[in-house]
């Protein structure tokens, strides 16, 4: 989920990561994902469950007896045990479709693989070592890293299913509910009891934005269902959190090769913002350093300039007309805080004079949006979601008792995470609209609208979450698809 800039009007800004690979479904090669299994150790086919010293001999003997003496009870007994053991091991290694096997069953050791690790090329530091350690030690903490890597693995397995299964003709509600059910199943947490949603779950409302709707659209109860068409370009943006640490990652799907260059432009721009560039710069004393895009001690303005340069090098032909791919200038990437999808730092997609530096310990959602329209978004009709302020009060006292009760439920289930009406239905609420409106009008809840470019235009998004650790930059949400 992104955030807007304050250019001419208050907006949320977004960032999208990508990688270089083409795909019929929005730049993601369908089915190219590999499941990550915790312990993939399987015994040999004839292994006996008894002594380990003479496994081979006993296995061979058992096989011989089963062929020459079919009446031997002992041999048939062993054979049955061996078959069931092998079947059990194979089942544990394969994720279902849609994903319903909890991750802890696939990763029995409880440890999850790192994302893409990128070494830093500069030797400069942002802070004195003692201050750096004091302020940012969480990013080297094994529990913190495992939480983030687990959330990333849930994202990878869920989006693999989306890329393989989503087809034109499905409704956006079907797709959104399928994503959310998969995330909850993989986390083994339905989030139905108070407090469970703060342990793990969805990081923000699932975004399924079509064509000129650039971002922040989710299907809500009571709306007319939107059916996905073959000519649509759909941005799929969802977040997963474990103990409040949010993986924010997005990709774009299309079913018509007409839009391949649009998707390629945005994917390239996101990867450009993430990766290390091979360009050397000369500094005082004649020393040369390799310029990085995202990294410790890097100015955000440099990252923005690189993103714009990459995206604007593309154009796309749509029905006989050529369009330049424009970066959306009033959306941005953003840093991520604990239980807060938007921090204070933003990464615009166009050149700017922002001298703010990325620092060790920052967590960024690096994303880009490209459009064939004006490259400038405005609020559209409807509501995407709601969110409490960063420091919500313990309780509120409003004229509507329903609003006071609703506030307690929101605080207990979502805290400062952004949520939507569909999530309120999931925890068993109904008839809450008057309470929601009361909380919004009193400034207790913020509401967020869909973000639109001009009708008839098309837009794309790619996004990754990166951790600026002391030892390396970790693109934690990176997968084989993008």
TrEMBL record:
A divalent metal cation 2 binds at residues 248, 334, 367, 463. Binds 2 divalent metal cations per subunit. Has a high-affinity and a low affinity metal-binding site. The true nature of the physiological cofactor is under debate. The enzyme is active with cobalt, zinc, manganese or divalent iron ions. Most likely, methionine aminopeptidases function as mononuclear Fe(2+)-metalloproteases under physiological conditions, and the catalytically relevant metal-binding site has been assigned to the histidine-containing high-affinity site. GO terms for biological process: proteolysis. Its cofactor is Co(2+); Zn(2+); Mn(2+); Fe(2+). Residues 1-105 are annotated as: Disordered. Keywords: Aminopeptidase, Cytoplasm, Hydrolase, Metal-binding, Protease. Residues 48-58 have a biased composition (Acidic residues). Residues 77-89 have a biased composition (Basic residues). The keyword Cell membrane does not apply. The keyword Ligase does not apply. Residues 65-74 have a biased composition (Polar residues). One of its GO terms (molecular function) is initiator methionyl aminopeptidase activity. Residues 147-384 form the Peptidase M24 domain. Belongs to the peptidase M24A family. Methionine aminopeptidase eukaryotic type 2 subfamily. Cotranslationally removes the N-terminal methionine from nascent proteins. The N-terminal methionine is often cleaved when the second residue in the primary sequence is small and uncharged (Met-Ala-, Cys, Gly, Pro, Ser, Thr, or Val). This is Methionine aminopeptidase 2. It comes from Metarhizium acridum (strain CQMa 102).
